[in-house]
Design a protein that fits this description.
D-Maltodextrin-Binding Protein, domain 2, 315 residues, globular, three-stranded parallel beta sheet, alpha/beta
Length: 315
């Protein structure tokens, strides 16, 4: 319990720090105007880039269900993070006096997502990215939108119940994730002799486990549960063990861009005030998703603390 309280305090601090720091398929958004006095006389950074180009570019993942993913019969990405990013786009349009802005999407991976943000290839990264001290040296993050933790997925009857059972076995992780680093450090600390294999994306990591090329797959618990729901593999796969790490997710954007940071903060404040933040959570985690999966994941203690910082008390 002390661990949860401490983590809640950390998340609250992160959310406070972040707070200070509808357009679909390319259609123009038309939210209500804002007070002109709140608009800088001369725009800079990302807002200036969007004003000049008429385009805001969202980075998405193709296999981070239910945060950001693409199904075979879908043209555009969808998910919890995509919906939140659309709320951020609405705020950007308000900041630009309701100017018509087109939304474009660009695929990123765990390895390419940070460079895509810093180089300007994308303006907002709408995936399942952990906000941590190391990453905050290079990029900025929205207030906390989800809290996950590293766990293991294994085949049922594998005999693996925790990381302690991985000695001499093969573990697959996704390249460029915090899970990859965490499992490498864990293996070194306890001298487990784990053979760690990195794959380019979560889909490839799952496939390696499914095909017998690995004994376990380590990533965030919600993503593992999402794979089991999406693949209908409840009879063959299981998520096991205690949390190995905790991960606070945020929308990633360029660092040292105060106007965009203010717009992101304001967007989350609007979504908290009109309760669309809670409605979006329920849409993706407590109800059947638009593609039919059911996760049934109530808001965690840690996430509820982060949401309370935004002014939400009733979930």
């Amino acid at each position: 319990m002390k661990g949860l309280i401490a983590l809640a305090a950390v998340l609250t601090a992160l959310a406070i720090s972040s707070a200070r720091a509808e357009d679909t398929d390319g259609a123009a958004a038309s939210p209500p105007p804002v007070d002109d006095e709140a608009i800088p006389a001369v725009l800079t950074g990302t807002l200036k880039k969007v004003e000049d180009s008429g385009v805001v570019t969202l980075g998405y993942r193709d296999a981070s269900f239910p945060f950001s993913y693409v199904r075979k019969d879908q043209l555009a990405p969808l998910g919890y993070s995509i919906d939140l990013c659309r709320g951020l786009v609405e705020e950007i349009v308000r900041e630009l006096h309701g100017a018509p802005i087109r939304t474009e999407y660009r695929l990123v991976t765990s390895d390419t997502r940070m460079e895509a943000v810093t180089s300007g290839k994308i303006d907002l990264e709408c995936g399942s990215t952990s906000s941590n001290t190391e990453r905050q040296k290079s990029v900025a993050f929205s207030p906390v939108m989800f809290v996950a933790g590293t766990k293991l997925m294994v085949k049922r009857r594998s005999g693996i119940a925790s990381y302690k059972d991985l000695g001499g076995k093969t573990l697959v992780v996704t390249s460029g994730t915090t899970n990859e680093k965490a499992m490498t450090l864990l293996d070194e600390k306890y001298h487990l002799g784990i053979k760690i294999v990195s794959m380019p994306d979560h889909e490839a990591s799952y496939a390696l486990l499914e095909q017998g090329g690995a004994d376990a797959f380590a990533t965030d618990d919600v993503l593992l549960s999402g794979f089991i729901a999406a693949k209908h593999s409840q009879d063959t796969m299981a998520v096991v063990g205690d949390f190995i790490t905790y991960e606070a997710y945020g929308i990633m954007f360029r660092k040292d861009d105060p106007e965009l940071a203010a717009a992101v903060r304001q967007a989350f404040s609007h979504m908290a005030a009109d309760r669309s933040l809670v409605a979006t959570y329920r849409k993706w985690f407590l109800q059947p998703t638009p593609t039919g999966e059911m996760l049934d994941l109530p808001i965690s203690l840690q996430l509820s603390e982060a949401f309370r910082v935004l002014g939400l008390d009733d979930f």
